[in-house]
Design brief:
This protein has a domain at 559-661: Golgi alpha-mannosidase II (Immunoglobulin-like, Sandwich). The chain contains 14 helices and 42 strands. The protein binds ligand MIG. Residues 112, 140-141, 176, 249-250, 340, 355-356, 414 line the site of ligand MIG.
């Protein structure tokens, strides 16, 4: 937790499920022992501690203390000089994200839980009825049979039929998978795990057990390849039903109670059964306890590893097993995995969400710095529970959070059991309209966003960035935690407080143009910017291009798509990437990369449009280029050397051509 600038903080790398996110909270779900030193007029330098064991960081102004509970520590110093170079080099070592399935960039709806097939279908149908774009619906723990992982419970009597009904209306289904396996001699997954001795042990060689949702559980030892293979094949029952994505939760790993704790809380809980209403109370009985020495893992050579040395890669190894499951049961298709815990490099296998926040304004704002921090650490595909997980959301908060969530790489609304519902329509028509407007904008920006994901795949530079990426020599930008950049050219200034219709916005180097009205703002100034409830301030960097398409109910709803290229300024260059969004063909050249360039002089504009790479049939057909703030007197427009037609529509100069006009 806390701001992007970590000076004055102490941080611990021990993957932990710590659900009450206070500003000083540490440790959290994910451990990436990496930080970047940045000061004006000096090269940025990254430090990566290559140990999966527990490590501790104390960051003062001029002293950085690093302690690692390990022998033979490797520390890498990674020279920039630019901050993005540091991240490119770092992700060159630990890995970068693959291209995600295109649908995973769409809006996603979740809730703990949509617990029957009818309830889930109703939510999906309502999205379509109200024309709120949405691609994904999540099934939280209640789809299972008594929380037994890799089963379907009685509320989903025909999962295959359910998933295919969802598919018919353009929805993908993602199911949660927790690592705890219920100890139950009549349960196939426990039995098959047991038959290969799959579970972690305590130091006396007995199976380590702990209580999670299903009751008493054992935990797979993902260190062993054969255990990972067993885990991969256990996914068959989900993929057979047509599930398209997996959601890994509780994989720090988290247990709700140890056996000893269970004895103590039995009286709070009643008959030793888990009652969610009493959970908070029971959990509070225990401070964080460290079982690092008591649990033993074994690798394939029989070597014993104390838990503390491998805890931080437990989720990472689970992610490897899950990605193998995708290869087995959805060959040739891109995997989609969402995870809570992880280690440096987790982005190769999974998107990361920031866990159990609350429906508080403070958390809406706090999520900006958290996701920026993940991005600086190499994880590009990040997002938060839009609307807040714990506690009751409200219309204004959900509207503001959705406006902001549009510009987080991962965009999912999720909330906890026992809280008020927070689907887009939950707070009445006025709020629903605002939410719909912004989810629709997300889909209109798909061409732009997909291209940004491709850059993250290519060079590891985060999609969501702090303002100091624009000018790392300006220390004023180091402390801005309530504005952020999406890619190279969008600056987002969300409203993070209730009943607030304006805010001050710091405009960094360059000139930036308000997307709502074309107003131009000058560099290194603070402006008072209006933002009524149905508007979030978005600024576009001068001389850049924003790529849009028509609204759609879900990604690739239509075979062919129109492309809009909005040109902010009188010159510039922009790139657009596209591929089939589904298969791995892009790795073999199955993609298109277009370059748009604009130059201008007294007489008019000169445009060039090139296909830098053409390896995919493509969905874009017609192109409209919109010149925002074009001078009225423009008469002459050339595209690739030939005169083209142009006209004014209000203040916007429009030029039309087609994809086939590319040279
Ligand atoms: O401690 O599966 O962060 O998203 O809804 C609760 C139930 C366990 C924690 C996850 C949350 C999910 C919830 N899980």
């Amino acid at each position: 937790m806390g701001y992007v600038d970590k000076r004055g903080r102490e941080m611990m790398m021990v993957n932990t499920d710590n659900p009450l996110h206070t500003p000083d909270l540490d440790p959290m779900y994910i451990s990436i022992p990496f930080f970047i030193l940045l000061s004006p007029k000096k090269p940025a330098i990254g430090f990566f501690i290559n140990s999966t064991s527990y490590s501790f960081f104390k960051i003062n102004d001029d002293t950085y203390t690093i302690s690692v509970k390990d022998e033979g520590i490797e520390i890498y110093a990674i020279y920039g000089p630019k901050i993005d170079d540091v991240i490119t080099h770092f992700t060159g070592m630990v890995g970068r994200m693959e291209m995600p399935p295109a649908w995973s960039i769409g809006y996603q709806q979740s809730r703990w839980s949509y617990s029957t097939d009818e309830e889930a279908l109703d939510v999906a149908r309502r999205m379509r009825k109200d024309s709120i774009p949405c691609d994904v619906l999540y099934l939280d723990i209640d789809y299972m049979d008594g929380y037994r992982v890799f089963t379907w419970g009685k509320n989903f009597p025909d999962p295959k039929k359910f998933v295919s009904e969802m598919k018919e209306i353009g929805f993908k289904v993602v199911t949660i998978v927790d690592p705890g396996v219920k100890i139950d001699e009549n349960y196939a997954v426990y039995k098959s795990g047991k038959s290969i001795d799959a579970f972690v042990k305590d130091r006396y060689g007995k199976e380590f057990t702990g209580y999670v949702w299903p009751g008493k559980c054992s935990f797979p030892d993902f260190l062993r390849p054969d255990v990972r293979e067993w885990w991969s094949t256990s996914h068959k029952v989900l993929f057979d039903a047509g599930v398209e994505g997996i959601w890994n939760d509780m994989n720090e790993p988290a247990i709700v109670w140890t056996d000893a704790q269970m004895d103590k809380v039995k009286n709070i809980l009643g008959k030793g059964e888990i009652n969610f209403q009493l959970l908070g109370e029971a959990k509070a009985v225990f401070a964080q306890e460290d079982h690092g020495d008591e649990i033993i893992h074994k690798d394939e050579n029989g070597e014993r590893w104390p838990h503390y040395k491998v805890r931080n890669i437990y989720a990472y190894l689970e992610a490897i097993a899950t990605s193998r499951a995708f290869e087995l049961y959805r060959p040739g298709k891109r995997p989609f995995l969402l995870t809570r815990a992880g280690f440096a490099g987790i982005q190769k296998y999974a998107a990361v969400w920031t866990g159990d926040n609350s429906s508080w304004w403070e958390h809406l704002e706090a999520e900006i710095a958290i996701s920026i921090g993940l991005g600086l650490s190499g994880v590009s595909f990040t997002g938060t529970d839009v609307g807040g997980f714990g506690g009751n959301s409200n219309g204004e908060l959900l509207a503001r959070w959705t406006e902001m969530g549009v510009f987080f790489p991962f965009f999912r609304n999720h909330s906890a059991i026992g809280t008020v519902h927070q689907e887009p329509w939950a707070f009445g028509e006025k709020i629903e309209k605002i939410i719909k407007k912004y989810i629709t904008l997300r889909y209109e920006l798909f061409p732009h966003m997909y291209t940004a994901f491709h850059s993250a795949h290519e060079n590891g530079v985060p999609i969501m960035r702090p303002l100091f990426f624009i000018d790392q020599d300006n220390p004023d930008l180091y402390s801005i935690n309530d504005e952020f950049l999406f890619g190279d050219s969008l600056l987002i200034a969300p409203i993070t407080k209730p009943n607030t219709m304006w805010r001050s916005v710091y405009i960094p180097k360059g000139r930036w143009i308000d997307m709502r009205n074309g107003k131009i703002y000058e560099e290194d100034h603070v402006y008072k910017i209006d933002a009524p409830l149905d508007e979030i301030p978005i600024f576009v960097k001068e001389n850049s291009m924003i790529f849009r398409t028509d609204p759609m109910n879900y990604i690739f709803e239509k075979e062919k798509m129109t492309l809009y290229v909005d040109v902010y300024g009188q010159e510039g260059r922009g790139y657009l990437y596209e591929d089939d969004g589904e298969t791995l063909e892009y790795k073999k050249g199955g993609y298109n990369l277009y370059e748009f360039a604009v130059g201008s002089d007294m007489k008019g504009y000169t445009l060039s449009f090139k296909a830098k790479h053409h390896g995919y049939a493509g969905r874009y057909e017609k192109i409209t280029m919109n010149f925002i703030n074009a001078p009225r007197k423009i008469a002459n427009i050339n595209l690739n050397g030939k005169k083209v037609n142009a006209y004014f529509d209000g203040n916007i100069l429009k030029v039309e051509f087609e994809i086939k006009d590319a040279t």
